[in-house]
């Protein structure tokens, strides 16, 4: 699976270092439907201690309740159903990996529309 869908190298997370450090009140990454947090643990290897930013791992209770916090240093496991509004506001990144492929396009739109109101403005 990792060979077919690598975690690292798909997005330059480390380039967000200055932005994350400049705005520490903003969560760094929300891993939506993040499973057991493997992707966040991999990303931490190129973003040490997540540059001081919060990282939230969201999934259903059956997944979140199975996790041990000591296995996920610096990561906050949180129950969230993607069919409800995203509760974590203004994060730098909303990360959806191996999630949307499980749903038909209209359902994907519903999932994405639940995230849009949480997103902050982007200034370049
Ligand atoms: C294929 S796994 C991908 C996990 C992780 N993103 C990864 O790349 O390894 C899909 C995940 O979506 C979660 N999921 C499915 N329906 C969900 C829902 N309604 N709300 C939140 N998470 C959901 C599953 O529990 C599962 O952990």
TrEMBL record:
Query: Would the keyword Transferase turn up in this protein's UniProt record?
Result: yes
Q: Where is the O-methyltransferase C-terminal domain?
A: 28-119
Q: Name one GO molecular function term.
A: O-methyltransferase activity
Keyword line:
Methyltransferase, S-adenosyl-L-methionine, Transferase
Q: Which GO terms describe its biological process?
A: methylation
Which InterPro entries does the annotation name?
COMT-like (IPR016461), COMT_C (IPR001077), SAM-dependent_MTases_sf (IPR029063)
**What is the name attached to this protein's record?**
S-adenosyl-L-methionine-dependent methyltransferase
What species is given as this protein's source? Hyaloscypha bicolor E
Q: What high-level taxonomic lineage is stated for the organism?
A: Eukaryota, Fungi, Dikarya, Ascomycota, Pezizomycotina
């Amino acid at each position: 699976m990792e060979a077919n869908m690598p975690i690292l190298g798909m997005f330059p997370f480390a380039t967000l270092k200055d932005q994350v450090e400049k705005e520490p009140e903003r969560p760094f990454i929300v891993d939506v439907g993040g499973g057991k947090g493997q992707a966040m643990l991999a990303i931490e290897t190129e973003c040490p201690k997540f540059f001081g930013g919060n990282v939230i791992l969201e999934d259903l209770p059956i997944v979140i309740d199975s996790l041990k916090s000591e296995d996920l240093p610096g990561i906050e496991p949180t129950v969230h159903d993607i069919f409800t509004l995203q509760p974590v506001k203004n994060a730098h990144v909303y990360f959806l990996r191996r999630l949307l492929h499980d749903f038909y396009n209209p359902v994907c739109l519903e999932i994405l529309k639940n995230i849009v109101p949480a997103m902050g403005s982007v200034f370049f």
